[in-house]
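2024-03-11 09:14:02 INFO receiving multi-entity request
2024-03-11 09:14:02 INFO entity count = two
2024-03-11 09:14:03 INFO echoing inputs for audit
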Amino acid sequence: MHDDPADPATDDRLDAAFTALADPVRRRIVARLSRGPATVNELAEPFAITKQAVSKHIQVLEHAGLVTRTRDAQRRPVHLAPAALEALTAWIDTYRLIHEQRFRSLDDVLKRTTKEKES
Amino acid sequence: MTNPTTITAPDGLPYIDIERDFDAPADAVYRAHSDSELVKQWLGPRGYVMDIETYDVRTGGRYRYIHRTPDGVEFAFRGSFHSVTENAQIVQTFEFEGYPGVVSIETLDLEDLGDGRSRARVHAVYPTIEARDGMIASGMEGGLTEGYEQLDELLAL
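2024-03-11 09:21:47 INFO inference complete, emitting structure
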């Protein structure tokens, strides 16, 4: 996260990335692509949705600059763009919020259990 | 006053380190990590149902649990407890079933600080940096929507 938060270009790019990644199917596609390029067919496989729907998701990711498609004849595999990993790194902030919430719930549990012990 | 959470994901190393203090002694924090009835009350994202299939916190034990979103989407996690030292340490594997074959190893260390307080440190090791970043993205899907809502709230300040 070495991006300057005041830089509007960085801001716009992150906005687009975050919007694109707000969808669970698109997050899984990105997670799958972090292990290597894949075709639309391969990406559609784990989801109970049509190939057309997966193609739409890929288009959204493409517009956000998170994935690229090579013009490799019919296969046209989808690749994770280098910028995507950068955007994923920004996710650490979200990850932190989730843990924060989790630990606050744990605080509540501890408050209850230590009180039970005293009484 | 809430205790701060420190999370570090170093550049170039596939680790995540988390540190958090609690206003409770280490044995209470350990119990909240090992009694499935208690685990259920805090590990899942708020508003989601957490079903624990098995949660056998002892050396060689295993676990599997499922987070269910209000609209019925399920996210399952599983692993085994490699070694468990009561009130002090839990070493476990962790796998998000939506991202199979990518297994991290998580070490939780608990330390009493005196005055009824304790410190928890989690060190998670992933097979690759990409796996770490991918796991951050996909392995926490259950909590993500809420995370975004909280992020929105923060950004609106």
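2024-03-11 09:21:48 INFO post-check: The interface with chain B takes residues 18, 21-22, 24, 27-28, 30-31, 34-35, 85, 88-89, 91-111, 113-114, 117 of chain A (CB under 8 Å).
2024-03-11 09:21:48 INFO post-check: Chain A is about 65% helix and 5% strand.
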